[in-house]
Specification:
By secondary structure, this protein is mainly beta. The protein has 2 helices and 89 strands. Strands 1, 2, 4, 6, 7, 8 and 11 form a 7-stranded antiparallel beta sheet that branches. It has a 7-stranded mixed beta sheet with strand order 17-18-26-25-20-23-22, with no helix packed on it. A hairpin with a 6-residue loop joins β74 and β75. The model is unreliable at about 1-20 and about 1165-1180 (pLDDT under 50).
Amino acid sequence: MKTINFKYLLLLILLFGTKSFAQVISIGNNTGETIIQKSTVQLPSIPTGEPFNYSIDFQNLDQTKTLSISDVLPQGLCYSASDIVADASFLDFSGNVVSNPNSIPGLIDTSNLPTVTFNIPNNVQRGSFTITVRFCGGITEDGFSVTNNICATYGVGNTNDETFCSSMGLTSTASAINPWGNITKEPLFPAVLGSDGNYYMPTPGGIVNYKIRIEKEPQYASSVFGMLNLTDVSITELFSSCATVTLVSGPGTINTATNSIDLNNDLNGNVPNESAEFIISVDYSGCTFTDGQIVPNTVELNGTPVGETPLTNISSGTANVIAVDNLPAPNLDTAFTKTVEVFNPVPGCLGKYIISVVNNDNRPISFLEISDQLPIEIQPQNINISGLINSASTSDTFDLSVNNGSSTQFPMVLGYSSNPTIWNSSTNNSFSLIADSNTLLYPGDMLQIVVSFTMNSGIQLGSTITNCAHFEGAIIDVPNNINISLNEDSCSSFTIESSEVKLCAVKTVRKANTNDVFVTDITNVIPTDELEFQICVQNNGSMDFNGQLVDVLDARYEFVSVVSSNMPSGTTFNQNGQTLTWSNIDLFQTCSSFSGDYGCINPSNQSYCVTIKVKVKPFTPSGNIDNNATLSGANSNPFTTEYAKVNVIESSVLKFEKEISEDLTNFSQSLTFNPTCGNSVYYKMTVTNLGNKDVLQYQIIDELPAVNDVYFPTILQRTSSFSFASVIDDSSPDFTVSYLNTAPSSTNTPTNFDCSTVTTGNPTSSSMTQTILYESINSLAIGGSSEIIIEAILPSVTSLFSGDKAINSAYLVNCSPDGNIVIPTNMVELNIDAPVCTPLNFSPFTIAVPDLFPLAVEQELSVNRDVNKDKEYGDIDNDGDVDILFSKKDNSTQLPVLYWLENTAGPSNSPIYNLPSVNLNILNARSYRLYDWNNDGCNDIVILGWNAGVVVFINDCNASFTFGSYLLYDLIDYKYADELLMDIGDLNNDGMPDIVISGKHTASPGTIFYEHNGSNVYPFYNLPSPQNYISNGNGVTNPFIPENNGSIPTPEIYDADCDGDLDLFISDPLLPAPNYGGARMYFHENNGGVTNNTLPNVNVIGVSNQFGFLDDPNSSGYNSPLRCDWIITRIVDYFGNGCPIAISYNPCSQKFYYYLQEDCLCPDFYLLSIDDVKAYIKDTQLVLYPNPSSSTIHVSGGNQLEFNYVIFDIQGRKMNNGTYSQGNSIDISNYTNGVYLIKLYQGNKEKTLKFIKQ
């Protein structure tokens, strides 16, 4: 499986799942398999229009069930379907990130808004959604509140699905204020502005225009959140009763009866800088004023803020006009200018003429005309005309004529823009702009004409290009008999220069792996932080540039990477230590694309950027790090950037890692482990201070693996499937160690975690331990490091299966004054790989006593050899270990009776057999096998009797047996002979137990196959052809596997090649002349496939010397220990470790031998080779004593003073390791009784010895 790789988490504070200052509601189904948590910010109120989120976190622990979440969004909230998204937090059931969850079909159903349905796919274990909403801006009243609940449906998709909802909801309240309180009124012409700033009108009366503007109060002008709309808006005019008012322009209608203006629309508070503007005309012709009389005109704002009562006179504004006998004269201050913008005055480059007219007079300008005869040295590109014409003007229309051509008419409100096709390319160009007769430029109005051009080729260097524009107009005030003509020229010049390069470069910085904007300086940087520098270069000149960029990184930076893909084609990069060089940079001139000096970097010109990632080196002292870069080339002066400034602050930086090992040597972040080969693993935690400040005090908290554990300080599950049996602190010299029976993360959130959260626990570990607490003894200096080693003991191998895993992580709490920071390690994964089967691979046989059992047991198993040949090994008393079934002669009947030896060692331990044996009182047992006949989980006994049939005795699961039924009858299904031996197992792959009986007799000349026919009563078995009965029950002809005229065959059924079907071994031990010898075993492979009413698909011809069952011929006077007419060989998981051995019994010598598997299940470093197993026989220099021993052992002999050693049990599992010096001892007092091997090392020399613990 895959896990997220959290590598070297440095000061990473993960707050996923913690809801600071949040309202939270949770729901779940009855069994807790699914949990949904919904949260939102907890504030007294939320300004209208301001977005806020509902977060929905979910978890589903049962992949077979479907989760559907329903959320009905409250009325009064504004949102759209696009505001409802899945977050990038989805994980599948293997812990993998689900990429782009928003692309999952049907995940978010918004077809029935305001109801949102989230349909979680079955492969998703956890994730979250975000719903962004807002109280509708402007139209939501202050104090309005909503409550939001959540529901879910969970199940397999039928009527039994659970539906559950939150009993409480999340409540949010809106806040909003009325921002409307600013109304102004300003006189306009025909009122005349005097030099003193006052406006004047004639004493006989006349017309005065006013501009009325409604705005939000200044402090709220740009605000969009928490603003109310103003509805039913009106403006009340307060003026002399002798006057009348007319609305000239504006979004409303005037009521002359009430002298009020009603707005057509509401004023929107949630729109920045929202305003409404009106121009009214007040006619004072019916009024008579005295010279110097002030004529006031007041306006009042009325309206109703949303949700509130109507308001009158919210705000008012007054404009005064002074009546005089003689109006102020025109000030003749109209501004007419022509300027030129040429950053590169070089042929082919771009320039601009900018012509402006601003009416600074106190009266309108009419009959306006602007004309320009452009120089022949330039080629116009386009002309853009814009301006501001007061709405009091009857018209804003102008006519443009180019090169005396036909006029183009346009309104100034839209402006005008042309393309180069209107210009001549070989002669002078000209244009004129004429105002319509009804178009006036009121005081403050303006026009601007921009003509872009390129300079023609062939202009002599140093030439000055001068050009003038002409302006004509008139200031006309008919009622006051004013008509003044305006006639002005404005000129501009530039001088042609030679081409040159104009370099520009900027270096900026930001925190790496963020979307922050690049800036010139940043602060709050700490050692090991990663930064990104951006260097942008540009040529703003009129000549091409080729050169290099050099950045010499400060020695306190470690280079990480560079991205140069945005540099010009052909640019090369080289790093030499701290010096970064980009060579062959082509910055071609583009002076035809911009005209002005717009700074560095010029947004109108092409720029090129590189991004450099660096890391602030560990231990970097606090202070500033300034770094710049230089751009240089052959045809320009070097250009050095301003410094990109980084401020490193004082801080401890803790690197906290965790690793796992099976041998205390090779540590990594994941381990695949076979529990049959060992029962402990080792964790190493290392904390290093990479900062520039000592860590005065800290805690390390290791929460041990457990089902439903989490990766604190997140809520991400570690997905462990088992817990350790126990843990032991192996080494932690810098810490005080204690053990807790709780997991602190289950009751504390990261934001509330500090060094007072967890108190010291128990001094010793126990089976209840859930957490180890390490409290630092000393401070951790800059550059200092501390290491912890923990030994974890696995649970019983019988409780672990392939695919089980324990995910472990720890977290550190910095107790320093600037600390209270929770820092997790990476997650460490222990995967269990316990293969259920590997092909047999036996090493040569060796004598069983005392390795398997003591001599007394062998003698017990060998009595009455004439009737006691067969042996069976298996669990008789249903306690999970291997007992022994054998027979003795009943003195009264002279028939064999079954006995058993109980193994008291328990599962997965070297067997210990109790003497005396127990009589089962089952007579006439010639051959017998353990088999669960009635499928109750306990082994029954199938027996081939002496001059009787094959019967089954049923086990009550407590080693008490009662007769079951006959399976085969003597003289019906077969004919008994003394040498017959049997086995039972499914050879034809139909799921039912078949029986094979082997013998060397005319009535049974080989191995006979009996097929189970599926019946529950006798007859249970058929005799498939070509096998056939001899009449009168005298035996069987054409046996399945004919006898080969050797010794007496013994069958053993076992899946030797691990292909899922049962193979057949036939022990036929006697080897022929001339060498004779013994130990021959034939292998008959099962080729698979189901057969019915025929022989199984098993090879009839057997093959010898397979799987380590090697012939043992006589040689050099040596007679094979396995030479006898019978050799009873059984394959059995003797040690309960999944690594079967073969036990062979020689009735002739009454001795037992065994074949050990040289390489079974376990990694190589655990296993002893066969040379190791036998080395103790050959070793004469080194001796272990006392041997056997109950407490300690010593090594003597040889001339070595010191050894490294490793102790293994007989199953190949490592028990201990260490160093032995002469005069010392090795403690074995805690070992269980049995046989052990010790491997002694020095340099490349090694010896293996055997000892017995008793």
